[in-house]
Structure formats: structure tokens, C-alpha cells
Amino acid sequence: MSSLEEAETEETVTCLHMTFYHPCQEEKMMFRCLNFCRREQVRADELAKFGRDSNVCRYNLMDSRVSRIQFSLQFYRKLNSSELCFEIKNMSKKTKLIVDRTELGYLNKLDLPQKCTICFGDYQILAEIQEGESMDYFQTRLHLTEVPVLQERCLPSRQPVPESGIAYSLSPSQEKSPAEIDENES
């Protein structure tokens, strides 16, 4: 037998691509400690933490407005499934984390969608999961963009379109849930 026939089957690795944007990156260089355009291997049992504390976080954001630990990503396998996923958890007591349009308060967590935006403060991150098979580790590949991720992605509006076909755009302050009002109140 040849050595090729005896070699183990190569296993694919899950890769989390993250594209970072901040409007002041050019002048403040808050992403200067991140390794861009290079795959980085992370053990499956490690939390991938993002924040300003270089002693705790693997991915450092050099900005005093960022929490010591802003958020963490946990790689895991779903119960009774071979599906590998990421769970994102907000670790900041001061700043809400928005994943697509879901707001996460302190210690709230959810499964990271296959492709989504992660926002906090003026930070925008486009996260895309490239599926793999390895359960021992995953990879991250970070990218930097000068174009706002939300603009680049052109997120579709999740507002219902009336039968007239004319959709009205709401400002962020108008996107709150409807409030129930007593009929006697004006």
C-alpha cells in the first residue's frame, strides 16, 4: 500500500469569518491588536473572548469604551447531532449586544446564526460560519472593512409591508414595541 492510501482522511475545520468596522478606525486604530487575513486556530474547549483586557481576551479591541470582556463565543456540538455551532454571550454590564436585531443584555446568550451582524456601540461585525467537521478546534479569520457592515450587507427590513405595497421606514426610536394605552388616556 502507498503512504497516500494509509494516510488518515483529512478533516475539515469550522471557520468563523469576522469582518470588523468602526467609523473611527482610521484615526483611533482600535483594531491594531487583531491579526487580519490569517486563520487562527482555537481549541474547541476555549472561549473566544473579545474586549479590551489583553490578559483575559484573545481578541483585543483598543478602546476605553469597550468593556474588559465585551462578548464571548463558545464552540459546541448540538445534543444528539453532528451539527457544530457557536453561542455568543454578552459579557458587558454596560453595553447591550445586538445580534442581527436581537438585543442581548448582560450574560444573555444565543446561538450565532450562520451569517449575522454583531453590534455594540459604534462597532459592527459581520460574522459568517464556514462549516467543518473537526470537534477538536475551530479557526477564526478576521477581516477589516472601511464600509459599514450594515450598509454593505443591506439588511432587509423585517417590517411588514402593507397591502398597498408602500412600506414606511421607521427611525430607530420608532422601532420600539407598541405600547398598550388605556382608552381613557389621551
TrEMBL record:
Gene Ontology CC: cytoplasm
All residue ranges annotated as the FHA domain in the record: 49-121
Location of the region described as Disordered in the Swiss-Prot/TrEMBL record: 158-186
Claim: Cytoplasm is one of the keywords in the record: yes
A Pfam family of this chain: FHA
Transmembrane segments annotated in the record for this chain: none
Keyword set, alphabetical order: Cytoplasm, Immunity, Innate immunity
InterPro entries xrefs: FHA_dom, SMAD_FHA_dom_sf, TIFA
Location within or outside the cell: Cytoplasm
Biological process terms in GO annotation: innate immune response; positive regulation of canonical NF-kappaB signal transduction
Main location: cytoplasm
Family: Belongs to the TIFA family.
Protein name from the UniProt record: TRAF-interacting protein with FHA domain-containing protein A
Organism from which the protein derives: Centropus bengalensis
